[in-house]
Specification:
The radius of gyration is 18 Å and the shape is globular. It is an alpha/beta fold and 223 residues long. Helix 1 crosses helix 2 and helix 4 packs parallel to helix 9.
Amino acid sequence: MSLDTFRYTSVLIDWDGTVQHTLSVWSTACTDQLSNRGITRDLLTVARDIVPHLHECTKHGVMDVEAFIQGVVVQALPLLSQAEFNRDIWEVIETLQSYGVQQAVVSSSSLGAITDALTYHKKDLNVFSHLVTRDSLSETKPNPAPLLYALKILNATKKQTLMIGDSGADIAAGKAAGIDTVWLYPPENELYYDAEEMRALDPTYIAYCGADILRIVTEGKME
């Protein structure tokens, strides 16, 4: 395959839940912190309602919101780097890099969290042209600013750039930035997202595995 024939020549990719399976780390930390307060919630509630909305935990009986959030963060942060990578997606990242596709991570995580994970798993940082994190600028997804910043750094056009992510924030940011989007929905993420709600956000494409993403980048179509 030749880059000249690819539908997209630049890719922006989310980190948590896309490249690395960190969602379970946050769910476990939330469950433990709830348990410490004598509160029990099923895993689905934790995954879909509490993890994405920590500041709204009072509706689940948490009275000490700031202490709860701090407890979740303190428990989760040391374990994030050890969370497994999505091997399927990492193989696609390496493949796209070999073809000359520009790739930038656009994440609300810290730069240190991402580089620590890459180091722990002995992954090559150089597959990415740039890492845009919460340390890069104050705005985070769903604000389109991080994506527009990445486009500028890559000197990429909107028409030939694709945003890949697992969350509604990724899709919303991509649409607001005026670029095509891929909602990644591998089996590992089924617990964390309501498929119908995500489809209602109208991503340009839906991918279930690395092969889907490779086909989308190269051909601009799903199977």
